């Protein structure tokens, strides 16, 4: 599983922190069960954070979740947005960029994928694309939770410079 967060990174990071123990190496959840758990966790944490911080405006949060169903040998991509009550929407076909400056992010990814830069692996490439956005609402550090097809998992945190944090 790979989760991308846009909007309130404090809530998004809390979601990743809450689901990491659930999606351990030995989990037996289907993709639908994983997405349902992400939805429930996100809704709960978003609502709690909004109640606790009513003086702040946290009305935008978007998660993009990529999963692999090992039984079907198929990958899935979902978006969950605060504007739709975090109802999971399966993304088919072309992937879209959401949030601040989507055209710049798409161009950054397209340019760097085509020239085979040092950001060729998706985690570093997408993290670099996020860091390239000049907007105070966009976090410069990134967290990726990856569940691999061989049922191994890895949590990768990249700091503001794109270096792996331990």
Shape: globular
Measured by DSSP, the beta-strand proportion falls in 15-25%
**Number of E strands:** 7
Query: Would you tell me the structural class of the helices and strands?
Result: alpha+beta
* Total helical segments: 4
The low-pLDDT segments are none
Strand order across the biggest sheet?
1-2-3-4
Q: Report the C-alpha radius of gyration, rounded.
A: 16 Å
Quaternary state reads single chain
Which percent range fits the helix content?
25-40%
Helix/strand order, N-terminal first: EHHEEEHHEEE
Terminal-residue CA separation: 20 Å
Q: What does the model show?
A:
With 166 residues, the chain is α+β, with helices and mostly antiparallel strands. Helices cover 34% and strands 23% of the residues. It has helices at 9-19, 31-52, 102-114, 122-131, and strands at residues 2-7, 61-69, 74-81, 89-90, 142-147, 153-158, 164-165. The strands form two sheets. The chain has a four-stranded antiparallel sheet, with helices on one face. Helix 1 packs across helix 2 and helix 3 (102-114) packs antiparallel against helix 4. The longest helix has 22 residues, at 31-52.
